[in-house]
Structures are given as C-alpha cells and as structure tokens.
Amino acid sequence: MAAAGEKARVVLVGGGPAGSLFAKTMEGHADVVLLDPKEYLEIPWSELRSMVEPSFAERSLIYHKDYLNDTTIVTSSAVNITEDAVLTADGQSLPYDYLVIATGHALTSPASRAERLKEFQRDNGKIESSESVLIIGGGPTGVELAAEIAVDYPGKKVTLIHRGPRLLEFMGEKASKKCLDWLTSKKVDVLLQQSVDLGSLSDTEKVYKTSGGETVRADCHFVCIGKPLSSSWLHDTILKESLDSKGRVMVENDLRVKGYNNIFAIGDITDIPEIKQGYNAQKHALLVAKNLKLLIKGLPNSKLSTYSTGYPLALVSLGRKEGLAQIPFLTICGCLPGKIKSGDLFIGKTRKQIGLSG
Ligand SMILES: Cc1cc2nc3c(=O)[nH]c(=O)nc-3n(C[C@H](O)[C@H](O)[C@H](O)COP(=O)(O)OP(=O)(O)OC[C@H]3O[C@@H](n4cnc5c(N)ncnc54)[C@H](O)[C@@H]3O)c2cc1C
C-alpha cells in the first residue's frame, strides 16, 4: 500500500471512452497511471464518418496528454497482473493499490495518432477511387459505413453482405427491418445469410463469390466484423478465474471484479448484462471513480454505490442527417434520431466530458 501521507496508487489499463473519463475524474484524488498501447483516445463511433471525411478524425482522436494534466501516461500494453503490480509489454512493472481494467475490445489501431489519421486518408482514397464498394458485416460498423458511403457518394454502388438473418442483431427485429428498408431506399444491395471467405480476400480482388453462390463485383471491400474483447492477456493472470466463458470480466454490482476488493472493471470488458455502449461504459467509469474516492478516504465497502442497468437504448447513425433509435416500446428511423447523433456523433459532448472544448 502507499506509505502514510502518500496518495493511493491507481493503475488504469485501457484509455478508451471508459478509461479516459475515469482517469480525468480521478485526477487530484490519487496517483493515477494510465496504461494504453495507443498515445491517444479514439472515440470509436466516429470511425465510419472519418472514413468518408478524414478531417473529422482531428477531433475524435485525442492525445491522452491533451486532456490529462496530472496522470502518468504509459504507452504500452498490459501483459500480466500480479497481486500488486501490472506488467507491461515493454518490461515495466507498475505498482498499484487499486487497479481498474478497461481494455474493451482488441486493439486494431496503430499506436501513433498520425498513423491513424493516415489510415483514414487511405480508406477515403479507396472509397473515392472506387465505383463500387463491398462491405462485409451487418452489425453497427458495417451498417454505419454503408450509410455514410450511400449518403456522401450516392453514385457509388454499395453492397452489404451479412452472415446472420437480419442486420443489427444487437437491436430488436423492428430496428433490423427499418434499417434494411432505409438502406434499400438508398440503393444499397443487402445480402443476408451469406458470407465471403475472409481468408481469400486480397486488395486486388474485384470479384467475390458468396457462400450462397452469388457473385459480387466491387472495386474495393471493407471488413466490418465485430472486434473480439481484449481479455486474452488476462488468461494467465490472477484474474483468470474472474473471466466468464465469453472472456468478459465478471463484476459485482459495485463494479469490483468478483473475488477482489481492490480491482475494478469498467466498460465493454465487463459481464454486465446490457447493450455494450459507450454511454454505459462512461457510467461505469463515473461510478468506479466515486467508489474509489470513498475507499481512498477509508470508508467501508458497505458504503460503495452499486450499478443498475438502464433501458436498452441504442442509436445508429444513417449518414449525416438520419438515424435509427431503439428506445423502450419505440423504434424510430429518420431525421429525429439523426438530430440526436448523426451530425456531430457526440464528439463535442465526449470532448467536453474530459475537459476539452467541443
Ligand atoms: C460502429 C459503432 C457505433 C457505436 N455507436 C455508439 C453510440 O452511438 N453511442 C455509444 O454510447 N456507444 C456506441 N458504440 C459502442 C462504443 O464504441 C463502446 O461501447 C465503447 O467504445 C466502449 O468503451 P471501452 O472504453 O470499454 O472500450 P474500447 O473503446 O474498446 O477501448 C479500450 C481501450 O483499451 C486499450 N487496450 C486494449 N487492450 C489493452 C491492453 N492489453 N493493455 C492496455 N490497454 C489496452 C485500447 O487501446 C483502448 O484504448 C458504438 C460502437 C461501434 C463499433
């Protein structure tokens, strides 16, 4: 434990929407170390807009050092945890009194912000130079990308192929139907219950055979299948017994990891039964910051606040002006949900939450 008079040492693993807000909220209350392999926070739900408008990413890729003033930033990955330290890929040992796991989904972005900006420019170049685009995967990423391209480049032929029986399977059937109707109205070809062999894809490929025997011609393709959780690094750690069968970290209702008094988990990595959304991840972050402040002050575990899941809200953007919202007892498609999300994609709001101008 930290010596008398010293601040508690908190190590936070993962600087996504959950981790970034947690770190910001804890500044001044503890010695916080943020460990993230990327030097920046990426607001994931802006990715598809950045592919059609690369300058959009200037506001949604935020250097950790630009919003954190009193946090030690370590740019590396966690590879192991002991009872009192986190071990990093570059050989450091980060001692902790309290540990927060916020590793969400497996990393696919480069460590450097400049490199990530270049990726968006390359993706945009691919879209611009193609007359036809194939999108593989009909979850939120594939649907939002298809919509962005259909709205910004109405002359391009977009085909969306999805292995499952309906689009947006994390939402209800009404939402799937409205989404399909919307995409069809924008002349996107949607192929359901079909797939293409991901192993056979190449950048020069222009003809794709589907599992249903169809042939799709497209000048380029984007693979938009869900990313796995970033919990494989926990398999040989003290937390291996705290993972469920899907690799999610099991938490108590005060968001402490099951079996541990001083380890918390927040965001998409948790086994909380709710739709995995950034706004929920941010709620976890605020609750754990509140609970940690109480523990640091010496209050007993019985005083910790508990988390309760809210309504299963979901909002998918459909280009710049329209969207699809699922709220209790109602699913709406069109300009009203679009007004809430699709213009700025909550980037200004997310920036303000971590103390930056919108
Ligand atoms: C297309 C799309 C649209 C979405 N739209 C919305 C929306 O409108 N509203 C909404 O609320 N949510 C939305 N979401 C969901 C939202 O993006 C996630 O719920 C949110 O990103 C979860 O945040 P997180 O911090 O838990 O995890 P992540 O965002 O996955 O962040 C994890 C962080 O951990 C780091 N990390 C990973 N492994 C390690 C390791 N071993 N060591 C150290 N660091 C590590 C990563 O670098 C990253 O910084 C959308 C998602 C998608 C894909």
Write up what this structure looks like.
The chain is of the alpha/beta class. It folds into 2 domains: 146 residues, 3-Layer(bba) Sandwich (FAD/NAD(P)-binding domain); 144 residues, FAD/NAD(P)-binding domain (3-Layer(bba) Sandwich), CATH 3.50.50. The chain contains 10 helices and 19 strands. The strands form 6 sheets. The protein has a 5-stranded parallel beta sheet with strand order 5-2-1-9-16, covered by helices on one side. The chain has a 4-stranded parallel beta sheet with strand order 12-11-10-15, with helices on one face. Strand 10, helix 6 and strand 11 form a beta-alpha-beta unit. Helix 1 packs parallel to helix 8. It is elongated, with a radius of gyration of 21 Å. It starts with 8 loop residues before the first strand and ends in a 5-residue tail after the last helix. The mean pLDDT is 96. The structure holds flavin-adenine dinucleotide.
In short:
The chain has 358 residues and is of the alpha/beta class. It has ten helices and 19 strands. It folds into two domains: 9-37 and 76-108 and 227-310, FAD/NAD(P)-binding domain (3-Layer(bba) Sandwich), CATH 3.50.50; 113-226 and 313-342, FAD/NAD(P)-binding domain.
Key structural traits:
358 residues, alpha/beta, FAD/NAD(P)-binding domain, 2 domains, 4-stranded parallel β-sheet, 19 strands, 22% strand, elongated, binds flavin-adenine dinucleotide, FAD/NAD-binding_dom, FAD/NAD-bd_sf, flavoprotein, oxidoreductase, flavin adenine dinucleotide binding
